[in-house]
Amino acid sequence: MYNSGKIMTHIKLLAICLIAVLFLSSCALFDQDTGQENSGSVLADGTQTSPIPISPDIEQYDVDVMLYFLSQDGTSLVPEKRSIKKGPERLEELVVSELIKGPVQSGHIAIIPPSVKLLSVTSSDNIAFIDLSQDFLSVDKESPDKRALMVYSIVNTLTELDGIDKVQFLIEGKKAPIFSPENEQIPIEDKAQNIQSGPIARANSLIQSPITAVNGFLKALSANDLDKAYIYMSDDVNDKNRKSLQEFKDAIKQVNFKLVDYEVYDYSLGLDNNEALVSTDFEIKLSDGSTIKRDKALLRTIRLNGIWKLEWTRLLFEDLQLEALNTTRK
């Protein structure tokens, strides 16, 4: 009895093992069939279907960023808002890559040449660390102010991101002086740390504003550079007072004056922040030697595509012409 009972126990164990093996084998076959289903299925007529595509962009989403490019006159930075696709990449790397690609809006000028390669961008303790190729050091060496604007186009772009206050430049993994203290464009408070290759803070003073637009216009006008002065005038196609370049030159020559002195003070923004009145004093000299002065005259500016321009008003043309005629008659 003992031996027969022991034999029965072995038989039961063998049966259980056989059932387990059969169960596991069926699961493996089911998994294999399932994998084949994912790679396509066979219809009743024998046609093989294509697998359902999985989009590589399934984890991407849109992010609005602010980039800074060179202004048309080459003296300041202009902002350009752009929507980009954000995936697993670091946002810091994406915005610098977009900056190197260049602007899409008219009047914005690319400032970083394509020869400059972005090696990496990381951030820690509110500082972005950007590693660039050696080519970066040779860009605009003969134009230090433009070089400074190139540097600050990167700094101002990166410091638009949350959690970044300064930017540390690296050249192929090592710290290097980016520019010398003689650069006029470098804010005074940042010069010491820049010379020592330290982190660089944002410079809002380099961003184009109503004041820089009016200053640029009056500077070009005083130098009688009418082609350059014209680029500061509004290019809004809906402005009925807009003049062509030739009409602009004719209007200036008709008044026949020379801007001998000017000073720009401050400006006040409109409710929508896209219009501003700029306060300025200026003095013009007429062809007969007489002068006309204006104190605290208001020049109206408008922001188009992120760029401040002067509106086509009567102030600098018809009004001055009428006053010049009255002065001559006297």
Low-pLDDT stretches are: 28-45, 47-55, 191-195
**Classification by helices and strands:** alpha+beta
Radius of gyration, CA atoms, in whole angstroms: 34 Å
DSSP strand tally: 11
- How many discrete domains? 2
Spell the H/E element sequence. HEEHEEHEEHEHHHEEEEH
What summary fits the major beta sheet?
5 strands, mixed
Could you give the distance between the termini? 144 Å
Provide a count of the helices. Answer: 8
Residue fraction in strands: 25-35%
Helicity range of the residues?
25-40%
State the shape.
elongated
Which whole number gives the mean pLDDT? Answer: 78
How is the topology of this model organized?
Layout lengths: L1 H37 L22 E10 L6 E10 L4 H11 L16 E7 L2 E6 L11 H15 L7 E6 L2 E2 L15 H5 L4 E2 L8 H13 L3 H5 L14 H11 L1 E13 L5 E12 L4 E14 L2 E4 L7 H12 L1
Architecture overview:
The protein is α+β, with helices and mostly antiparallel strands and 330 residues long. It folds into two domains: 61-206, no CATH class; 210-329, Nuclear Transport Factor 2, Chain: A, CATH 3.10.450.100. It is built from eight helices and eleven strands. Strands 3, 4, 5, 6 and 7 form a five-stranded mixed β-sheet that branches. Helix 2 (91-101) packs antiparallel against helix 3 (144-158).
